[in-house]
Known about the structure:
Neuraminidase, 9-stranded antiparallel β-sheet, Virus Head Decoration Protein, Chain: A, Methylamine Dehydrogenase, Chain H, 3 domains, disordered N terminus, about 0% helix
Amino acid sequence: MSNLSDLLPAGASAKQITATDSGSGIASKKPVILNSDGTVTEVSSSTATANVGSITTFNSDAATWCATAAGSGSTNLVAYVDSGASSYGTAQVGTISGTGVTFGTKAVFESASVTGIKMAYSSSLDKYLIVYRDNGNSFYGTAVVATVSGTSVTFGTPVAFSARTTYGYDVVYDDTAGAFVVQYGDNNDIFAKACTVSGTVPTFGGELTSKSTGTSGDSSVAYDSTAGKVVGVWRTYTSPPQGGEAMVYSLSGTTLTANTIVVYASGNILTGADCKISYNVKENRIVIGYKEGAGTSGTAIAGEVSGTSITFGTAVQFNASSSGSITCDYDATVARTIIGYLDAGAASYPKAIPATLSGSTITFPDSATTLQSAAAANLSASYNATEGKMLFSWLDTSPVQGDSAVFTSPGTVENLTAQAFVGVADSAISASAAGSIIVQGGTVTGPTTDVAVAENVGSNIPWGDQSKANSAPVTAYGNNDVLIAYYINDGATRGARVVAGTIGGGTISFGTDDVISADATVLAYYYAIAYDSTNDTYIVSWQDYNDSSKIYAAVVSLTGNTISHGGTTAIVSTANVGNAQTLSAVYDPDTQRVIFTYCSAVDSYAYAVVCEVSSTAITTVGTPAKIDSSSANNGYAKRIAACYDTTEDKIIATYSYYGGGGTYYLRAAAGTVNGGSNSITWGSSVPVISGDANYLYIAYNATDQRVVFNYQDTTITGYLQSSVASVSGTTITVGGTPSVILTGTNYYPSVVHDATANKMVSYFRGSLSYAYVASGAINTATNTITYSTPTLVTAASLSTQNLEGAVYDPTIGKCILVSAGNSTAETACSIYTTATTLTNQPLTTGTKYFVTPTGGFSSTAGSPSVNAGLAISTTSLLLNGDS
């Protein structure tokens, strides 16, 4: 549609059209699409969250062999076996509105007992074809045409298409050939027939034997609209182990031709009649959902049709428990394949899980959504394009009845297509108002571009005394510099020790180490640092192992990378736990106070103490107070971390017993600092996870206004995870599903917010004692993070990394990664660039640009690939349209 400008008179100076906004308004210089009603809409994307509408009963007696298909407009047809009426074949029209569905009166299409119902809809015919086994007619395969009008459905005369006892039906409409294709089996062979429809009369072509001998009769078919082919799948069984096969059909008129059979799975798979196939339009891939292995886990695989054959990627498990009644359909709203299944590991509850495809690679970044918290059977699903929603239908086993629910799929909603792109708004257009759109051949002045930034780990920058073994570093960022406090692991050198580095020119220049403790014999192994932004100083605290692990601190100032410091001040004069991460420090700019949180060795409670500071010293030390004394479980704190929430002006503390079992959960609380009394008022603590955790880290994301907790989950063999929480006052609300950073036993998952990329960056020690980094953006709708594949940071020679730390430098817009080993010359520091896309950047003259689904311009083609034009200056784009 981008060539609409060709209709303008030759030489039209501005190459513009006048169009009316669809109702949302359009910003200046933004790309727009043309809607089917002639209005225009700004190219944009949004995030949809998973939602299950109210469950609606369409048959209060019973409904087995339930099948669902979307029709025209908001209507859907549900066909089923009405067990309350002699198991007759019955159907009802369901009309979706928002997140609800209402059903019309049920109508009988077969006055006899039926089973195995499946159906498909043809938009060109505006008809449904229902296929089933007619138990009242020698179990023959039978078909009937259904026509929907409003909320009613009528049927033609049923036609038997197979004079044999048949099983495993499925049917799909081939838009290219203009015919339905039915696939079925007889518990030994797989067959297929094509069918054309005239009025309400189905006419079948000859029967094709797709696979002779060795099949179960379980089958499914889908139409690949790009290739113009129907693909069939089925289960084999005569040569154990059982396997799955697929074949691309060739169709001319009503004549089907078989092509090469391709094995997509082997090895004790597909137990039961639970395989379903659908077509993913965005990635041009066939997706198969099926059961696999002795545990019958839910599995999916994607395949690409080329000519008359199909090749498959790698199978991926989406559910570890037994999954029954698998179904799937493509949701064009979020461009994802949605798989429905019954989770036998959760009492056969019906669930839906979105699959994300990249080519033939399938991932499942979102957790499954429970459709109903009760056992079900015979699950089916269909996508309604008008409403942009999925309709799931199933048999509720207690009470026995047929139920449906509308499902909103989670994901990114995009409105951009190559066919719909029409041009760029010359200036802002108000909602529903008319405005000028610059089209192909016109020049737009003022657009900016999106720039993709690749991940990059800078070269290693040594720090500290390289002649000795440096260990357990803790890092803080200040005013374009970093301060590292660490321990020299030579058994002799003592004193609380720090080293400073200035950041510039793509590197960090470290100065000379300094001992900041008054007593140079102090054994200071564990530290915490807070940066005082008011005084531009660092407050460094440490546990004095020579003095019962009491906590001391000093104020450090920097001139470049040269260190000066004040005297030592006792912060906590009672014993502190002598272990890593039992001390944390954070600065509150609102009250200009430093807050130390720690785990006490006296009673194992988590404590906080508020201190006033000057530019050279700690002037007032408040009284230590328990963070949470309401529960006995909280008297077992052995790890702690804290951060400052700049939106709510709150201190967020998280603490854990780790490894204690029982109900010693990882917990968190929010506190308000009272500057006048140097105290904190804490809200009620909440569990971050219902389990134990070790190696705690915490960070605040001011862009998304979320707190992120990173930890090692000790209840699942050391997995590194993130939990995301929102804070309102002193109330903390934690997302229900932790995000996995890396499976296996790994350590020290430090976390920091990279505000440039708006991603959380985790720098940690892997199971092989090497340091890795991973990043991920917060999904604020679900309070989860999807992390990138971890990247190795340190060389193999730098092993046994300890207390990895990450800080963010807003001046250079990058993160600084710091760690150390147990041997000499094993300090590690890198400047890290997080992979991201920067918006509102100048154009590059002479570069071709594409429209992005988020409503910008990029020099890299996206999906879909929509050509915008050529940059004729850093601020001007000559529109070429999608050609």
